Amino acid sequence: MNQISFSARNGLLSDAMKPLRPRLRERYGERLEQLYTELEDGQAERLRELRSNRTRRRLSSWPCISARCSPE
Q1: Geometric angle at alpha carbon 28, from 23 and 47, rounded to 5°
Q2: Structural domain boundaries, residue 41
Q3: 53 phi and psi angles, rounded to 5 deg
Q4: What is the pTM of this model?
């Protein structure tokens, strides 16, 4: 995202300094959707990795996977 600040002057905030959601959506909506898609894809890939490694790990190592620590 670019470094444009939110202001009433550029139309992203109202005079009461509240975000103008339609204008924000118009300006940033496509990029935000792209970021959410990338995040979702990354999470799905991590889940696939965990599922594919499940048969190779001992059941006792599962709590360590969720805590991102190394198995015993």
Answers
A1: 140
A2: 1-72
A3: -90, -5
A4: 0.52
- How many structural domains is the chain composed of? 1
The burial class, CB within 10 Å (0-12 / 13-18 / 19+), for 22 is exposed
- CA distances, 19 to each of 15, 29, 32, 34, 36 (Å): 10, 14, 16, 21, 20
Residue 8 C-alpha from the chain's centroid: 28
In tens digits, the chain (72 residues) has pLDDT values of 556 788 999 999 999 999 999 999 999 999 999 999 999 999 999 988 888 876 555 555 556 555 556 554
pLDDT at 56 (0 to 100): 58
> Distance between CA 33 and CA 39 in Å, rounded?
10
